[in-house]
Automatic annotation (TrEMBL):
Organism classification: Eukaryota, Viridiplantae, Streptophyta, Embryophyta, Tracheophyta
Compositionally biased residues, Gly residues: 21-30
Compositional bias of kind Basic and acidic residues: 120-131
Keyword line: Glycosyltransferase, Transferase
Protein name in the entry: Sucrose-phosphate synthase
Residue spans of biased composition, Low complexity class: 33-44
Family (UniProt): Belongs to the glycosyltransferase 1 family.
Length: 1078
């Protein structure tokens, strides 16, 4: 805290002010007497009854906890004030500001304590429930282990420690594999050469990390191609290279079998405004566009790789790896769409940042969210945890102290679930991602090989015997500051940020005379031209450093060059090593500490903060000392010890060089691929099941992926779900109508020339022919979707107070049909889909009411995305001729799903909150992948984000939504939703999302927001929905709609006036025109 020199002047001024207020009686020249007497002598001008001691408040509140950086500008004004009275007034105002900040800080601390207390109670409840639920399938001895593991807060029992013996270390034996790996890092400026690190807050160490990781992975045996996805930026404000669609990083492993697509590539995906560079906080509404663009590239590349190395079969990604919260959100959706494993690396975490900022007391939670979009970032991280198989961290501290703050991860529950999985015991749908520590690698290509057994000598040869022109320019730039450049060099390299604690280092150096006499101090603090033009925080640090140099008279002993580039950094390390110096990282908290590894690779012993990643690094390398960053004496002592004791210096140097291979990229990638190989690898079974065109149906001897699941389909048929008999007499049930039509279609398809047009009555075998038959001349084995060039999806949520669909929904469907069919060219290439929260039975009843044949739709997405049907398609008809859902889709979304677990947990949560009477089961709307409840009282139920938080804490990963005018609560699998169902149609049948047109109302179900973003075109039909379920989506303090949906988008248009086909067509043409300019 007390890190800026102006504090001393501030304190002196307050003491003087206190003395003057007392007429000098407090001892204006004696600070001690002023401090002692300030309480009695300094009375507030607001009245004698309000005695206020500015000195007391300064010492007790500011120095002990309030961050002073936001007061610095006011202090500058105080110093510049010449008038004594005005100066005194400003000082008093500052004191009151301090008092306000201190009070606010204490209030925030209290709120934090209350949140933690509530969270602990919730965790205790979760553990009790887990003990009950998870003990059912275990033996008596195992039950005791489970109870003890969940209840204990101490060290886990040995039997629950992770066992990695079943993992085979990745080796050259895997070189025959041809793996495709996808990395995602959305924000910042990413390119392979001349990286502009530090050009802004989004272009830093993460950019360097992901580029080097992509290169290193592509060189590993068995890896054929690595794609690094980032955002394409075609802006005049940045270099043209960031607008290139692809950039090759390297050609891949030397033992790879050629191939034009082998190697590592940067793939830039456009999203959001094409001509602007956008900060990461503003990218959130455009991430769905990024997902759709990335999905299209992956599918194209998978087919290309299939031709090259996959023997004609598409090569889907082996893993999708998201870096940071935004890329984690993207990776979770891509993983769900492709059904491949996902890996997450957080880099820095939102909850940790929120806590740190709130502890400063300078900003409210609302202000923090407005500035950093922190709540949307946290939700992105939670969504990534939901989908991730594996989370890679740099340190153990990141797991225990940072990820432990998240709803989606509990280290104790994760251990128990892992143990049950290993035993083959059901987890009832509960899941926690596995977290492993794999330290980042380092690129040693710029490191001059050091002799491990050497003594590091050679400085005289390097400096005295060489021509100045032969030395690296940065050496001369550093040495010009130093009176005696031959002394050992203490090197610190970081940006001038208060968190890096550089000022404490300078104080430690300045106040330790033996250290000053023995060594020089070199500070590499970024690049600067004019301190006054730098951000306020950086300028404050640099100004303080310069003042400290002057205060301790360190001229000739401290170097602080103004400029350096990335290529100079290895040379700076080399110079410090030649001077037998020491590298120090005194940061208050260091998440990892890559500079420590770089220093060790150049033969430098290290001194580092004891807070964070350096603990793991020094343990592995055994090449330095840890210190308390707040203790300047400890810092000075550690530096002096290493510099003065040559034997210790040599030992640390040798240890660092000997162990540095642990942080090489090959070692990192070996551990990485070993861990990924341990994930449950899953791919869609239907990859090669669908022929390229309809004419190939009969001649291609391809296995029908649905045959093996015939028994499952019978159980999952619509009537089978409700236990209805298949031999019931004819009725008016729409499903029976469909059954009759399907039976007639099957019968007519066996005759040469069936005749007749359906009249809806089902009478007469020769009188029934479906709409799809009229179009194609027979029954299609596969849906016509794969032949469509456009798809119009009607997803209006028009429901009455009872949750039943209104006639408005039918009217929208009919007007959309008229609008599209009014254009003969568009009609020929277009298909239709209906997306709804209703079950199939109610959907068919609605269509029957409007006399709309179900076969007019290529797809019916029912149950909030839990089922997909293809009317008029042979594969969606069971043995009795009744509609059944796409079985491949059911397998696709079944990952981590437990119907009973979701149903029972929701019931327990409602009972625990005393709102069990607010909901009751809706059996008619349930299916194998949808749990539905009637909402009796919307005022008593929890919002979606509150329910999702509590389900996550219990290890249940689900998709929840309120729907049908807030009369239903539906829970579907994590990978199921109405928006993800559209991506499934793209992946399964090849219809690009960009060729889809979504028709929605002004309001709708709580999942409506998810559907509005993406590359599809959206038409909002005005005046058809008066209200929806959105009010139950988020509680106060959560993220906002504008963090999910762009406020203005060329991909969205609205109708005007009455609901007419002409107006819908006008809106369709408008959105087509505006989107074409993207």
């Amino acid at each position: 805290m007390a890190g800026n020199e102006w504090i001393n002047g501030y304190l002196e001024a307050i003491l003087d002010s206190g003395g003057a207020a007392a007429g000098g009686g407090a001892g204006g020249g004696d600070p001690k007497s002023a401090v002692a007497g300030a309480g009695a002598s300094s009375a507030s001008p607001r009245g004698p009854h309000m005695n206020f001691s500015p000195t007391h408040y300064f010492v007790e509140e500011v120095v002990k906890g309030v961050d002073e950086s936001d007061l610095h500008r006011t202090w500058i004004k105080v110093v510049a004030t010449r008038n004594a009275r005005e100066r005194s007034t400003r000082l008093e105002n500052m004191c009151w500001r301090i008092w306000h900040l201190a009070r606010k800080k204490k209030q925030l601390e209290l709120e934090g304590i209350q949140r933690m207390s509530a969270r602990q109670k919730e965790q205790e409840q979760v553990r009790r429930e887990a003990t009950e639920d998870l003990a059912e399938d275990l033996s008596e001895g195992e039950k005791g282990d489970t109870v003890g593991e969940l209840a204990s807060y101490g060290t886990p029992k040995k039997k629950f420690q992770r066992n990695f013996s079943d993992l085979t270390v990745w080796s050259d034996d895997n070189k025959e594999k041809k793996l495709y790996i996808v990395l995602i890092s959305v924000h910042g400026l990413v390119r392979g050469e001349n990286m502009e690190l530090g050009s802004d807050s989004d272009t830093g160490g993460q950019v360097k990390y992901v580029v080097e990781l992509a290169r290193a992975l592509s060189l590993m045996p068995g890896v054929y191609r690595v794609d690094l996805f980032t955002r394409q930026v075609s802006s005049p404000d940045v270099d043209w290279s960031y607008g290139e669609p692809t950039e090759m990083l390297c050609s891949g492993s030397t033992d790879a079998e050629g191939g034009e697509s082998a190697g590592a590539y940067i793939v830039r995906i456009p999203c959001g405004p094409r001509d602007k560079y956008i900060k990461k906080e503003a990218l959130w509404p455009y991430l769905q566009e990024f997902v759709d663009g990335a999905l299209a590239h992956i599918l194209n590349m998978s087919r290309a790789l299939g031709e090259q190395v996959g023997r004609g079969k598409p090569v889907l990604p082996y893993v999708i790896h998201g870096h940071y919260a935004d890329a984690g959100d993207v990776a979770s959706l891509l993983s769900g769409a492709l059904n491949v494993p996902m890996v997450l690396t957080g880099h820095s975490l939102g909850r940790n940042k929120l806590e740190q900022i709130m502890k400063q007391g300078r900003m409210s939670k609302e202000e923090i969210d407005s500035t950093y979009k922190i709540m949307r970032r946290i939700e992105g991280e939670e969504l990534a945890l939901d989908a991730a198989e594996l989370v890679i961290t740099s340190t153990r501290q990141e797991i225990d102290e940072q990820w432990g703050l998240y709803d989606g991860f509990d280290v104790k529950l994760e251990k128990v679930l892992r143990a049950r999985t290993r035993r083959g015991v059901s987890c009832h749908g509960r899941f926690m991602p596995r977290m492993v520590v794999i330290p980042p690698g380092m690129d040693f290509s710029n490191v001059v090989a050091e002799d491990v057994d050497g003594d590091g000598d050679g400085k005289d040869d390097m400096l005295d015997g060489a021509s100045p022109r032969s030395l690296p320019p940065i050496w001369a730039e550093v040495m010009r500051f130093l009176t005696n450049p031959h002394k050992p060099m203490i090197l610190a390299l970081s940006r001038p940020d208060a968190k890096k604690n550089i000022t404490t280092l300078v104080r430690a150096f300045g106040e330790c005379r033996p250290l000053r006499e023995l060594a020089n101090l070199t500070l590499i603090m970024g690049n600067r031209d004019d301190i006054d033009e730098m951000p306020a925080g950086n300028a404050n640090v640099l100004t303080t450093v310069l003042k400290l140099v002057d205060k301790y008279d360190l001229y000739g002993s401290v170097a602080f060059p103004k400029h350096h580039n990335q290529a100079d950094v290895p040379e700076i390390y080399r110079l410090a090593a030649k001077m037998k110096g020491v590298f120090i990282n005194p940061a208050l908290v260091e998440p990892f500490g890559l500079t420590l590894i770089e220093a060790a690779a150049h033969g430098l012993p290290i001194v580092a903060t004891k807070n964070g990643g350096p603990v793991d690094i020094t343990t592995a390398l055994n090449n330095g000392l840890l210190v308390d960053p707040h203790d300047k004496n400890a810092i000075a002592d550690a530096l002096l010890k290493l510099v003065a004791d040559k034997n210790l210096w040599q030992e640390c140097r040798k240890n660092g060089l000997r162990n540095i291979h642990l942080y090489s990229w090959p070692e990192h990638c070996r551990q990485y691929l070993t861990r990924v190989a341990g994930c449950r690898i899953r791919n869609p079974r239907w990859l090669t099941d669908t022929p390229a065109d309809t004419g190939a149906d009969e001649e291609d001897a391809l296995e029908d992926s649905l045959i093996d699941f015939q028994d499952l389909s019978l159980r999952l048929s619509i009537d089978g779900e409700r236990g209805a008999s298949l031999n019931e007499p004819a009725s008016s049930d729409p499903q029976d109508q469909v059954q009759k039509i399907m039976n007639k279609i099957k019968q007519s398809s066996s005759h040469a020339h069936p005749s007749g047009i359906p009249d809806g009555s089902g009478a007469g075998e020769g009188d029934v022919k479906s709409h799809s038959e009229l179009a194609s001349g027979g029954v299609n084995k596969y849906p016509l979707l794969r032949r469509r060039r456009r798809l119009f999806i009607v997803a209006v949520d028009c429901y009455g107070d009872d949750g039943r669909a209104t006639k408005k929904m039918l009217q929208v469907i009919q007007e959309v049909f008229r609008a599209v069919r009014s254009d003969s060219q568009m009609s020929k290439i277009s298909g239709f889909a209906l997306s709804t929260a209703m079950p199939l039975s109610e959907t068919l009843q609605l269509l029957q009411l409007g006399k709309v044949p179900p076969t007019d739709f290529d797809a019916l997405i029912c149950g909030s995305g839990s089922e997909v049907y293809y009317p008029g398609t042979a594969q969606c008809v069971d043995a009795q001729g009744r509609l059944r859902p796409d079985q491949d889709y059911l397998l696709h979304i079944n990952h981590r799903w437990s119907h009973d677990g979701a149903r029972q947990t929701i019931g327990k949560l409602m009972a625990h909150d005393g709102s069990s009477d607010a909901v009751e089961p809706d059996v008619e709307s349930c299916n194998a992948h949808c749990v539905s409840f009637f909402v009796r009282d919307p005022k008593k139920v929890k919002t979606i984000d509150e329910l999702r938080e509590r389900l996550r804490m219990r290890g249940l990963r689900c998709h929840l939504m309120y729907c049908r005018n807030s009369t239903r609560l539906q829970v579907v699998p994590l990978m199921a939703s109405r928006s993800q169902a559209l991506r499934y149609l793209f992946v399964r049948w090849g219809l690009p999302v960009g060729n889809m047109f979504l028709i929605v109302g002004e309001h709708g179900d709580s999942d409506r927001e998810e559907m509005l973003s993406g590359l599809h075109k959206t038409v909002i039909v005005q005046g058809v929905t008066e209200k929806g379920s959105e009010q139950l989506l988020r509680s106060s303090g959560s993220y906002h709609k504008e963090d999910v949906v762009p406020a203005v988008s060329p991909l969205t248009a609205s109708t005007r006036g009455e609901l007419k086909a002409d107006e819908i067509m006008r809106a369709l043409k408008e959105v087509t025109k505006t989107s074409s300019g993207m």
